[in-house]
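Researcher: Quick sanity check before group meeting.
Model: Go ahead. Protein one:
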Amino acid sequence: MSTPSSPASPAAARAQAETSRKTAAVVYNPIKVSLRDIKKSVKRHQKEVGWNETLYYATSVEDPGGGVTAQALEAGADVVIAAGGDGTVRNVAEALRGTDASLGLLPSGTGNLLARNLKLSLDHLDSSIATAFHGVDRPIDVGVVDIENADGSRDRRVFVVMAGLGLDAKMLANTNDKLKKRVGWLAYVDAIVRSLRDDNRMNIRYDLDGTGKKSMRTNTIILGNCGLLPGNLMLLPDAAIDDGIFDIVALRPERKIDWLGIWLKIVWENGVLRRSRTGRRIMEHTPEIKTVRYMKGSELIVRLDAPQDFELDGDSHGMAVAIKAWVDPLALRVRVPA
């Protein structure tokens, strides 16, 4: 005859309830966010969903987010909320890639590129935190890139929005940080003007999806996981964040006047005409300009004749002489509104 099992003690029942509840962690840039405001909102939403006490980790110059995110995962975090700029988001995403934990977004920078492309709230702290606690997971692709640096060293990094070689990255390297704090995204206009003073053309050899080596002369080449920039500029109109491929664009002006055609392509065609049926009909009869070349693929290898600036999600990485980039499909879960 079997004997009835004894009921669990109140302490054991509480311990089991604690382990079954979720835990959130906030990885925050103390320069860009108010921890007091974050904690006030988090406390309310955490209580509403019945989660454990939220963990908090500050980023630093030495650790811009990856190390403390790893600590949060070791402590049992199910959702890690990145509270900072695009650099904070990228570093947190890099540590979360391939794990079961989800990324919550609390946009606090100038670009807010990932939140912008996912059509999330950009300027409402409580709404963003509510999404982290009450939302659902959306799997997205991640770009992975092996970088051969100018000094011969090698790095492996990830990006969630875009990576760029050449003028695109040079512009970011030339951005005045003090001006950026005062006027935000408009600081990049100043950087563009200063970057265009030089001859920015570069010779590259590339191989897209193993189709063979080709050569190209270009000013910049950008790999996109998604296509929207601040100012509602649609650089890569066909990009989808979960389709398993990169959308790639090479900008190849021969003269400074060619930049006008590129600008019209991005602002007028991509941003205006493409959004209506009539506009798309007009585009069907508009010849493609040779200064803008679009490509698609899941793996791109690029080798340069000379070191060039390289950027990841709007942050300058330094000078690179070669990269190998590929898509890691649906490798990151991001919290979005239910």
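Researcher: Fine. The other one?
Model: Protein two, sequence then structure:
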Amino acid sequence: MRISGRMIATLSISLTLLSTSVVAQAETSNDSLENTKQKLEQNEEKIIEKQKEQQSANDAINNIQGELQSLEEIIHNNQAELTSIEHKMETTYQLIEQKKEEIIILQDKTFERQKVMEKRFISLQHHDRTNLVIDTLINSESITNFVERIGAVATLLNADKELLDQQQVDLKQIEDDKKEIDEQEKQLASQQESLITKQDDLQQNIQKRNESLLAMEKSYQSLSKEVTLANQEKASIESQLSAIQTTIKNEQAAEKERAAKVAAAKKKEAIIVTQAPVQAPAKAQTVAAKPAKKESNSTNQEKPSQGRQLYVSATAYSHEDTASDITAAGYNIKKNANMKLIAVDPAIIPLGTKVWVEGYGVAIAGDTGGAIIGHKIDVLMPSSAQAIAWGRKTVKIEILD
């Protein structure tokens, strides 16, 4: 009968251990399930936070793109304005060039008129003007001839006065035209400088905006990657959660099976106990296993000083274009091909005069030429090719001495 008592004791211990094991496994699976759900919640909060940051970055990019579009329109309008001003400047430049040509013609007229007046003054110095008029009138043949001579004398005297008056008018017009040209050139230069400055400012602004846009796009891409990784992590956690839930289902099924076995075992134990004598049963000591405690888990070229100014028509030549290498003032332009020298009309600019020529620099009036008459000059170049490249220009010159 001792064998039967031992069997009952063994069966009781087995049942207790089985129940304890089942409870421990269930608690472990539930803990894993809770921890996984907690991780999933944290991951979803992280995704929501990154999506908000991503949306903020996207809104900032849209704002910058709107500002860029406005800047592009301003730059387009400014470019149109700049083109308009450049067109006006070109028109004004052509008017200036025309005015320079007119000045040269007036200078030549005043120069020729001055020579006529010099001849008349020399003639008056040899013949007293009053005696000349009296002689003219006395020598008249008749009253009709006398009247005619009076008219002729008056005409000559008036002609001299008109000549002098016209000379003064033309000289004043030349000076006025020069001032007008200078003022227009300053005004146009100022307008162009202002527009270029404005265009530069806009280009710098749009460059800054582009840099900001690039930075925001990089931030957006970085956030997108983080969101993608978080979503991947979420998928992984969900997969783990699904696996745990499957495990729990399997454990629950196993638990039901074990419960059925325990029930069967208990039934068998009851039968054995019923059939055994009273003194036979041995006391079975069971040890209850304590469930495991949950552990909480806890888990970033300079212009000189101003002198007398003239506008001239300027062409160019070199020693390769001349029959002689020696100029009218004795300079050897073949040996000194790079010297600054101009051919002039000595009646306008005396030989040996030091002058400044616009676009050429400081030079010496050291040569003459058959075609250099009036307000014309020929600038010396080192070669024929450079002389041809110079072409024909209307330039300002200043007499330095």
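Researcher: One line on it for the slide.
Model: The longest strand covers residues 308-317.
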